[in-house]
Amino acid sequence: MVNVIGLGYIGLPTALMLAANGVEVVGTDYNKDLVKTLNEGRTTFKEKGIDELFHRAVKSGIRFTVEYQQTDIYIISVPTPYDKFSKKVDASMVVAAVQEVLRVAVNESIIVIESTVSPGTIDRYVKPEVEKSTKRIYLVHAPERIIPGNMIYELVHNNRTIGAENIVVGEKIRELYKSFCEGEIVITDLRTAEMTKVVENTYRAVNIAFANELAKICRHDNLDVYEIINICNMHPRVNILQPGPGVGGHCISVDPWFLVGDYPSLAKVIDESMKTNDSMPGFVLNRIYEIMLENNLTDISRVGLYGLTYKANVDDMRESPTLQLLENQARHLAPGLKVYDPFITINTVPNQYHDFNEFLDAIDLIVIMVDHNEIRENILSLKGKVVLDCRHICDLPGVYYL
Ligand code: SAJ
């Protein structure tokens, strides 16, 4: 039996996938409400294909509880936030979960940590806990790689990395993941696995930062950054990403900071890239100001932000550029922007709308922060508005870009 600890964005799909493929699984989470919802037969977030997978897993006998189970394989997928000041990973939730596991685990158990941690975290914070125990416990790091919006497909098809203390343990966990994973599964040591995960997200952060910097340079000289990127990408060895209003989510906007926090005098490109990405919501705010001036718009309460999530077609708001922008604005004591997102049905920020048409009626300038399908399909309804399109999806005449 496998006990999956932490039933969030990663733990829940992983637990369901294992169960749906014939593994006996118990999912544990300390959040009683979340466990209650799952036991009532409902999933806790929106994701393509998750409800169908949930039903398959329930049919196969998956159980959800707040209790840690006595077994010999654990998968820990609890959050690893970072300290905004030191930029270092906060592994306290992983450590707390490991302590609980150690209380109930049988001798010779394997603890798989899926949560993202910075290189060396397992050696520094997790191993000492295991060494205090009288039991022989093996540690594995199997970082996840799935992308919100396409998680279920990617769980099956992505390649994976397994970092283990020895090859026998690594092989055992590879067999477990092979119950559903059709990708290649590489086995390496713990520290290398920790590093690969952070490096993957850092690679993407640096490349997004490059696109964002190009957007700023092109704005300075009134050049079309999108056309320039399209032309450059026709070169066989160039593949520039898209600029945007900022970088959100719990990975690309967070993990690279671990490297900056741990290697401050070495991680220069990474540090600058993260600062560039973090500057984008402020850059958008400045664009709003310029566009208002140009169009003689004076009432900030008639400006609306479309999208609250960190990217298109997900309901995840963690670190979202829109939230960063609103925070930036509030710090300047200038509240009042209107906000709407079809995926966010509860009130989370002031001046939030829940109906697209009511939102449009209340504003003169719309800022497209997120390219949800809803707005892509209703682009013509923006006719007559001043539009600042931060995602390059609208080609109505007179539209403004980053
Ligand atoms: N973004 C841009 N321009 C781009 C691409 C993305 O501005 O060209 C922005 C998005 O709008 C979003 C942010 O970057 O705000 C991140 O979005 P994303 O879709 O690139 O990635 P995430 O954070 O949803 O998922 C990433 C993935 N990692 C990589 O692509 C290297 C995923 O595979 C990881 O599993 C996930 O992080 C994670 O959990 O680590």
Observed structural traits:
alpha/beta, 42% helix, Rossmann fold, binds ligand SAJ, eight-stranded mixed β-sheet, 13% strand, 2 domains, single chain, 402 residues, six-stranded parallel β-sheet, 14 helices
Describe this structure in words.
With 402 residues, this protein is an alpha/beta fold. The chain has 2 domains: 2-188, Rossmann fold, CATH 3.40.50; 199-401, Rossmann fold. 42% of the residues lie in helices and 13% in strands. The chain has helices spanning 11-20, 32-39, 50-59, 92-104, 121-132, 151-157, 167-177, 190-220, 225-232, 255-262, 268-294, 321-331, 356-361, 373-377, and strands at 2-5, 25-28, 63-65, 73-76, 109-113, 137-141, 160-164, 185-188, 303-306, 338-340, 352-353, 365-368, 386-389, 400-401. It has an 8-stranded mixed sheet, sandwiched between helices. Strands 11-10-9-12-13-14 form a 6-stranded parallel sheet. The chain is globular. It starts with a strand and ends with a strand. The structure holds ligand SAJ. Ligand SAJ binds at residues 116, 144-148, 200-201, 204, 208, 241-242, 244, 247-249, 251-252, 310-311.
Strand and helix layout:
Layout: E1 2-5, H1 11-20, E2 25-28, H2 32-39, H3 50-59, E3 63-65, E4 73-76, H4 92-104, E5 109-113, H5 121-132, E6 137-141, H6 151-157, E7 160-164, H7 167-177, E8 185-188, H8 190-220, H9 225-232, H10 255-262, H11 268-294, E9 303-306, H12 321-331, E10 338-340, E11 352-353, H13 356-361, E12 365-368, H14 373-377, E13 386-389, E14 400-401
Parallel strand pairs: 1-2, 1-4, 2-3, 4-5, 5-6, 7-8, 9-10, 9-12, 10-11, 12-13, 13-14
Antiparallel strand pairs: 6-7
